[in-house]
Write a structure and sequence with these properties.
With 232 residues, this protein is of the alpha+beta class. Helices cover 31% and strands 26% of the residues. Strand 6 (134-142) and strand 7 form a beta hairpin. The longest helix is centred in the N-terminal third of the chain and has 34 residues, at 18-51. The protein is elongated.
Length: 232
Amino acid sequence: MAEVEELLDGVVVRLPAAEEIRQRGQRRRARRRAGTAALCAGVLMAAGAWILLPAGTDRPHERGAVASAPDNPFRENGMVRTLPAEEVPLYGTWHWKENEGRPVDSDARGDLLNRAGLRTFCPVASPQTGAPDRVGYSQEYRGRRDAVARQCLVEYDDAATAREQLGAVHTGLEADGLRRTPGSAPDDVRGDRGATAAWAGTVPGGHTLRVYTRRWESWVSVVEILDGTVTP
């Protein structure tokens, strides 16, 4: 069919032929079908990805919590990690160095470190010792003016035993006259990944004994510090 011409107020308007109109309509319908198919494919892909998520991770905040879960502070690359000297509390005061000589509890000052039942808790003169339900590790440090420190790190069979043993340590410290220091974290006997609790008290000879405890699931860390001689 030939193009149709109409004259409107002296202006010639050329209308497209019927065949061209049909072709334009077909092209529009094809574009709509293609867009609808792409949208459906996107929805299906999103649904498929959602279905593939592991069970129990359909809540965004839970997925984030799993991804950002902190690591065990007492293990690094599969190895037991005791504190480097510079991470021992009061490093700025006593300038700790890892002990390479005689054990720090081999003289009179050692008797002070072993107060409050800590001799029983800490492995003595051995890097690894313990009963069948525990494995213990220790690291000793010496500092300025005869200050000494020791970390006792024990891994128990389960978190329940670790909670019980940490509670016993805290009871022994309090019975021996040590008190929780101001601002110290609450007792973490009920928590599986508790913050550090700090204790301090005066022991015979006028020395200050400081004890820092922390539990991580089945692990318990106890750091003891016996202050050095204070220069008048």
